[in-house]
Write a structure and sequence with these properties.
about 325 residues; mainly alpha; 14 helices; MetI-like fold; cell membrane; ABC_transporter_permease
Amino acid sequence: MPVDEATPAVRPAAAAGPPRRVGSGARVTPRRGRGGRRAERLAPYVLLAPALLILLLLRFWPLLLGVNFSFTGDGDRDGLAVGLDNYRELFGDPLFLGALRNVGLLVLLLPVAVAIPGLLATFIYLRVPGHRLYRSVYFFPAVLSPVIVGAIFNLLLAFDGPLNALLGGVGLGPVDWLGDPDVAMFVVVGVHVWATFGMALVVFLAGFATLDASLLDAARVDGASLPQTIRHVIVPSLSRTIQFVVVTTMIGMLTSMFGLLYVMTSGGPEGSTYLPEYYIWIQQGQLNRPALASAASTVLFLIMLVVGLLQISLLRRAVREA
């Protein structure tokens, strides 16, 4: 049959494609334009922008100003560029070198300061008898002011105080806890750990909330001892929590012991309990040498950065080996 030229050509059914069914149960996915996709990509950055702006203005910018200020002079050379003179003076000052040695001591004691709340959190998680009471008792020192804690332990550790009286009662001689240069720093660090490990304990307990209980059950069925369970199950499972506690504990030990040092020893005896933060306060607050204090602050920041990165790398290696 001939086709009239005026009749429009009919497309094949295959070329027309399947018809769209729009029924009561059909879903119609709207197409997103370029503007919508771009807005989705930019949304996280927009949400992070206020926090990043606050960090930039209140953290990074003052840090850069402090580093720049450390290359200027004090006194008669106030505001003048002096190059590395402040750093040369720092590393020639016996008090600052003693403070750096104490930083090394803190780094060596850091695993102990992390292990104590970690083990206590493990016992609480395993529900030892009285675990609810222990949780409150362990956290209580964290709410006390460092000045109050220092004053309490000054009374307890005095040469004629109750601790030496107890030692005398069992036949041991009195110990000059805060007056002996070989003992005083260990005492202050021990008091600091006692006063602050409650926060690390809470962080560990939060990490235990994410631990797969079936792993502990499997270890118990296999007859694993508590040390084996901690090494092969708990430590690998809480690796990120441990990294966080290591970094925050280190920062706290290097930057939050001023109150205890000021109340308990004032940097003595013989400068044996100096730490960089106490040295910074002496230079800035008493000797009016802000440029030298800025140089000491820069050195302290670099120490915390390097030690933190090393601790994290060592911890990751230990977890992989476990």
